[in-house]
């Protein structure tokens, strides 16, 4: 049996060059990981290597550079397939990111399958990216959008969801983990209940892909979307997973090169999966770097990373609860390493500026979840989100900086 290697946060930190920089003369403390994670040197090197050594367009060329670039690009597809437990590499579609993936499903699947009176269910917790595309296709097709309510902590009302489900329900599109609050939704039960009504389920995995063990076959979700830049990879690329038979039945989302088989002025036939949904020259270098990001996670151990992040979450939660006037929003047990909070008499934007002066990067505002903030009766929160390279000492710096900022602002 292989001996489990110890989790070495300092060794991990050394792999991220940006963590060596200073902000306003202070050591950078980066707590905005739910927005985007920092990149290890290996990912940066992978992008540089593509442009330095095998920059060429993929799939169509017969020369050495094209062969090498194509091989690396398709290696990333296989790596993603294994990372999320898909059955076929053809089920992995490279996109611009989570938002793009949701738009592909809403537009392509929606136009082919939604009719007047059909129903789509989302939740109050959703990111705008999992609201607006469904609003748009619902309006276009005459479908009805229904919203799962939440309680005051942000936990989904499953009883209300059960009552919403009917034979008219065609799609349930749900965030796996709330980007604003960190709450993990009971997606296994949601998928089971939805399938009992023959409804499909899309999981927005933007926040879950880096924290949770993902097995799309075990979950039995119909679609799963996530972004590379939240799993220590580059920006501008992401993944749409869809069950093979569903993707095969969906019409192309965009027309152009690569997604075609034969083109004439009379008739065009479309390419097979996955190329049917990958029109034009893709973001080749960054897709290649997805594999490097996944390799980094595998090397350090996703479960070990999660345990470290959970420890940070527990520590930070205990420390923040001691600050007078501070209230954690979404203070529940079943969550990932995200803490959103408000402080009596302190505007989140003012707080963020003072924290930045101490070298601490947090996110403030509505976190692209305005309906959620409205339901909770707040304009926004301050959000601190932790990654594998964060430390307890950094949390201590946050607590000291918060206390200092509160004294200045009150």
Task: Describe the model.
It is a single chain. With 410 residues, the protein is of the alpha/beta class. The chain folds into two domains: 9-39 and 301-409, Aspartate Aminotransferase, domain 1, CATH 3.90.1150.10; 45-298, Aspartate Aminotransferase, domain 2 (3-Layer(aba) Sandwich), CATH 3.40.640.10. 41% of the residues lie in helices and 17% in strands. The chain is built from 15 helices and 17 strands. A hairpin with a 2-residue loop joins strand 1 and strand 2. Helix 2 packs antiparallel against helix 11 (284-300), helix 12 (302-321) runs parallel beside helix 15 (392-409) and helix 13 (348-357) packs across helix 15 (392-409). The longest helix has 21 residues, at 64-84. It is globular. The mean pLDDT is 95.
Task: Spell out the key features of this protein.
410 residues, alpha/beta, Aspartate Aminotransferase, domain 1, Aspartate Aminotransferase, domain 2
The biggest sheet amounts to: 7 strands, mixed
DSSP strand (E) fraction?
A: 15-25%
Going by CATH, the homologous superfamily of the largest domain would be Type I PLP-dependent aspartate aminotransferase-like (Major domain)
| Total count of strands | 17
CATH topology tier name of the largest domain: Aspartate Aminotransferase, domain 2
The pLDDT mean sits at 95
Distance between the termini: 57 Å
- Domains, number: 2
Query: Which CATH top level class of the largest domain fits?
Result: Alpha Beta
Q: What value does the Rg take, in angstroms? A: 22 Å
The strand order across the widest sheet is 4-10-9-8-7-5-6
Low-confidence stretches: none
Tally of contiguous helical segments? 15
What is the global morphology? globular
What CATH architecture of the largest domain do you see?
Answer: 3-Layer(aba) Sandwich
- The computed structural class is alpha/beta
Q: What assembly state would you assign to the polypeptide chains in this entry?
A: single chain
